[in-house]
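User: My instructor asked us to take a sequence, write out its structure as tokens, and then describe one feature of it. I'm not sure where to start. Here is the sequence I was given:
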Amino acid sequence: MSTHDDRTQIIEALYRYAYHFDRNEPDAAAALFSEDAVVDYGPEVDNIEGRTALAETMAIGLAETFAATSHHITNPMVTIDGDEATLIAYLYAWHRYVDGSPDGHLWGQYHTKLRRTQQGWSFYEMVLKGAGTVDFHRATMHPIGRRP
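Assistant: Let's start with the prediction itself. The structure tokens for your sequence are:
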């Protein structure tokens, strides 16, 4: 497989994550992660460890917190090193809440690590970083690393 094909598949994995999350398909979204994956959605919540725990956590959030979401991924930057890769991509995410709170907005980045498997590229680490929010359900996010 060419580096171009790998890059396309790596980026497509993040697009599929957003697609399945927005369609309320937590099992399909979690299937993009390895069994030993670690997901860090921010400093206010514990890291999620493992594909099964990720699917369960997403299912709860999609049922109890979010009435609808729309994730928009841009500016993907991919680095491939053999069977491992990093992907940093920008994110805008809109959230409608089950409890009727004002719609939440998040601007930020996904920082991910992937490895090549028999089934294709699989996330084994994801960190969500925030540049800004409006009416978002979390008060603090990991910073994107902007210099002062």
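For the description part of your assignment, you could build on this observation: Residues 3-143 form a domain with the Nuclear Transport Factor 2; Chain: A, fold (CATH 3.10.450.50). Try explaining in your own words what that tells you about the chain.
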